Batch of 3 targets.
Target 1
Amino acid sequence: MVLRDLSNTLIWLRPAPVVARVAAVTAVVRADVAAYLARDLAVSAYLADRGFPVVGGSAELPPGPHVRDGFTLSFNRYVPVDSSWTPSPADFAVLLAELHDELAGYPGPLPSRLPFDDILGVDPSAVLPDEPSGIARPLHGDAHPGNVLMTPAGPVWNDFEDTWRGPVEWDLACLRNTQRLDGAAAVAAYPGDYSAAAVEAWYEVRRLHTACWLQLF
């Protein structure tokens, strides 16, 4: 059963509690797409070991990543979701701050310019904007409500392929850019320290980043 078919194709291998994450458009943009799937598994495993609610790799099959018939894929845990759930801006701001606190100690290697690498992956001749300033730290990298699943056990974070080491304002710019809730209100409710000016500067980078991806759909 296909759950989603966008940058990756997500296939529930029912009745097994396993979801295959097959690199689709991501394999076009990212030359070493297996490294991104491996990062998703590594970061989610780190968070799960700390008791933080994440989807994470499958316990039924070796999570991978695997390459088969030219496709790169990983196996994740299936969780039931309530698609009617919509967090308030303030609720999501708290969820993101909690994630940032847990990610702060992540010891593994992370990219340092992932959004810019993606832009060049779509258009190698693109003129990149100046990189806004900020203190680098581990981020989700694609922090919007679509990457939080509401399950019977509560909200669960998902999709850590885009995790990189950058300023917190990038994740807040991703949140600012979402159309799933009032992004500006969610940023304003974020309980951690950040620069509003830096969020706006990174917001322009996020808009370019999003526009590049949308060219491929």
Target 2
Amino acid sequence: MDRRESIKSILLGTVAGGLLLESCGEPAAEVTEKIWDYQYGRNAKEAAIDRALLQSSFFSEEERQLVDCLANLILPPNEAGNITEAGVVPFIEFMMVDYPPFQLPMRGGLMALNAKANRSFGKAFIASTEEEQKSLLDTMAYPLEGVEEQPQEVQFFSLLRNLVLTGYFTSAVGIKELDYRGNTPHVWDGVPQEVLDDMGLAYDPEWIAKCVDQEKRNETAVWDEDGNLLT
């Protein structure tokens, strides 16, 4: 079983909610459609917060390219998908804005990684060879104890790795690769009428009225400004 299959097994085994090196891909292209940009079930206040977050940025272009490089090392592309298709780097940047406590360890970790590469190889991390990059990451990728007791560089890499895996395997690309179908509703029309007739039984109309109308299962719910469900 290769590394990617191991990761998928772990995620599926733990019902993957939130939360491992090969080649560095090209810097991520601009992702025009952000999969975490919810278009449904948001009241006016929530939608305004979402818009503000999605219009914000955190990384410099150099940092963005470094994060893209690291993400491709952590989860190399394969025939199922890649970091760019899944929008992983924009997702990580979104998380930096949405949860400010991530900002200091992330930016500090990126700076420390470049400083370490310069000391070791006389060049930035992204300019180093794949072998050199791996040799640096191997020193921080496998903590022996709990992450919180580890040096800051280990804590940084643990944070980054969790964000990469979360961003990928909660994207449309990643969910398809997992073949996860838990969010796919199953339609059951109840006991066939001929069986009910044969048994001399019938559904209680009052109980049936409380059930979901399967003919409307694809309709998007709508709330008013006070958060009351309209449909």
Target 3
Amino acid sequence: MFKVRYKGSPRVQEVPLDGQTLSPALAAEVDKVWSEAQEEQGNGLSNGSIFSVTDIVGSLVRGRFVEYKHFVAVRRRPDLFAALQVRPLAVTGLSRCDGGIILGCRSDRVTQDQGLWEFVPSGGVDRSSRRADGFIDVARQIERELREETGLDPSLIANVSLRYVIEDSSSHVFDIVADVALQVSAERAMSALNQASQDEYESFKVLDADGRRLFFERSQERLAPLSRYIAEDLEFPAAV
């Protein structure tokens, strides 16, 4: 179930670790789940760090960086959430070019929402966006995701405006949703999108107002859950 936890432009801050470490038994259980996931997905799964939310106080989202394998462990073994308390923070961009808004269809090589359409770019917050003062540069994370997922150069971004912090209570994932204004025509955008790597998305669409209305009316079941929530409840309620 999705819920808007903050409406506006949030700040994101890394807070110090509380000094607690995983017990040997819990660490062994996490490693076991991680090994099973690696065996299933081969070399496509690698460990790294993701930002995990600890709390939200007003406009301030606080958290810490944890190993990605902890998130995988919780996703595959929900009973481990009570001990690990992993609440990943991600970003979702509503990327608008001169001809409309961009959606991508997730490829069969990703681990979640395969074959579903979503707003792009979309991805987790990692250490590359951490500033020296401990705050996270969310706009920088969106710029990196845009380049990596769509092939569009961040220099095309006229403005990034943070809009919401959304919580998915079923998966414990938080998303910062932002408007991403692009200075590029639909034709030029599609030209770049068609040349993008297909690791994340197998295809893209640029939908104007009429196309968006028809697509959302006819293809609601083909939208990824978060994008469906954004479209129906927050951004385009008259179109669905």
